[in-house]
Specification:
With about 90 residues, this protein is mostly helical. The protein has helices at about 5-20, 25-30, 35-45, 65-90. It is about 70% helix and about 0% strand. Helix 1 (about 5-20) crosses helix 3 (about 35-45) and helix 2 packs across helix 3 (about 35-45). The chain is elongated. Keywords: Coiled coil.
């Protein structure tokens, strides 16, 4: 299962790499407990115009968006459970 890292961790990882280039990407990634390609991607993103991107599952622009996503998941799970119960009632009612 992939770990999610916040923007601060990503920025700190890039700074660590920049301060320890003698270790190379491989050594820095190992010390940070992340993949080599992940660190390379973060370094490349940090040099881009937009900076390091923090997107993906679990990363929301605001607490409201996070709550909305959680409520949508709960609603979907509840609707799924209701469908199962409806099917069970129709089977048992025969």
């Amino acid at each position: 299962m992939a770990k999610q890292h916040d923007k601060q961790f990503k920025e700190d990882a890039v700074q660590y790499y920049l301060g320890h280039k003698d270790l190379g990407v491989k050594g820095c990634a190992k010390n940070l407990g992340i993949g080599i390609s992940t660190l390379r991607k973060w370094v490349k993103e940090s040099q881009s115009e937009n900076g390091i991107q923090v997107r993906g599952s679990g990363n929301y622009a605001s607490d409201d968006q996070k709550e909305i996503a959680q409520l949508r998941r709960k609603l979907r799970d509840t609707e799924d459970a209701l469908d199962v119960l409806k099917k069970a009632i129709s089977i048992l009612g025969k």
